[in-house]
């Protein structure tokens, strides 16, 4: 190791590259692999959205945009969020267009956190929030929700805030959840909001899967507790646009002003033609996600039935496109070891539950953002693997 690298930010030494991406890369070389690993929709971006980007390129829209995003995109996104989830954000003062929700997480937490602060993170959860907190000198406080159906209870939240009230700056929510597929009802959110109202802390509410709910309409924390919520959303999942990298951060004016400073120095602005495509998606394709959602639901039901027949128990998946399945007692309970065995012996790739924090060990995350044909093949292989073991 060079002397230069020794001198780099010491918080980086506490962080390892994504275990999810590492595992996915390692098993990708195995031939005839059915990959149910990443949260990557297998649908194509809607044609009218692609055409909007092509027109943008042809019109030479290849220059810097407003750092907060184009006016047209912010207006379209504001209307979309209002019409869908009854949240009210001024497109001029309360919204930022980010390079995906991931940049939104980075810019928001970087603006919120000082060294010595702490962030409450209910787990199992998409792990991206954790390294960003650490990079900013903050301490993640993990709350294992596996004993409560993977829902954060207001009692546990209040007790944790009280025990750390001198340092707690923010609480992270992610729903519908990656990795469990569980979501929060209006009643659940109201109880959490009633706790948070008692304290001067943020809730970072990552709702990127809001258009993918099954059986009940998504309720946003931005409606329930707007004065303390920083809302994350975007087009990645709703319009199958992961590679376009367009996200949204919304919140109170003074909070967005501060997050906007980090955002501006991090990226300057999102790509112009990608913003044109996202504007088209929000403005003329607000319901593009419905057809995808219907197919995802059928895939969920197919996979859930097949896994249960193989002896797996699953959290009740009411959103997103993941099943969080408990490994049967007769199989290897070390989730990393189990996933390597499944990949090598059955040629099915899923993600170890340990990658998602406390409460994840003994589980695997299985993505059903894959073709029905691949899901059927995976089910057959998993059932045979569980039987011979």
From TrEMBL:
Obligatory cofactor(s): pyridoxal 5'-phosphate
A molecular-function term among this protein's GO annotations: transaminase activity
Domain Aminotransferase class I/classII large, first and last residues per copy: 32-382
Gene3D superfamilies: Aspartate Aminotransferase, domain 1, Type I PLP-dependent aspartate aminotransferase-like (Major domain)
PROSITE patterns referenced in this protein's UniProt entry, alphabetically: AA_TRANSFER_CLASS_1 (PS00105)
Any one biological process term the GO annotation gives: amino acid metabolic process
Transferase listed as a keyword: yes
EC number: 2.6.1.-
Keywords: Aminotransferase, Pyridoxal phosphate, Transferase
Residue ranges that the Swiss-Prot or TrEMBL entry lists as coiled coil: none
Superkingdom, natural source: Bacteria
Similarity comment text for this entry: Belongs to the class-I pyridoxal-phosphate-dependent aminotransferase family.
Name of the protein in question: Aminotransferase
Species of provenance: Secundilactobacillus folii
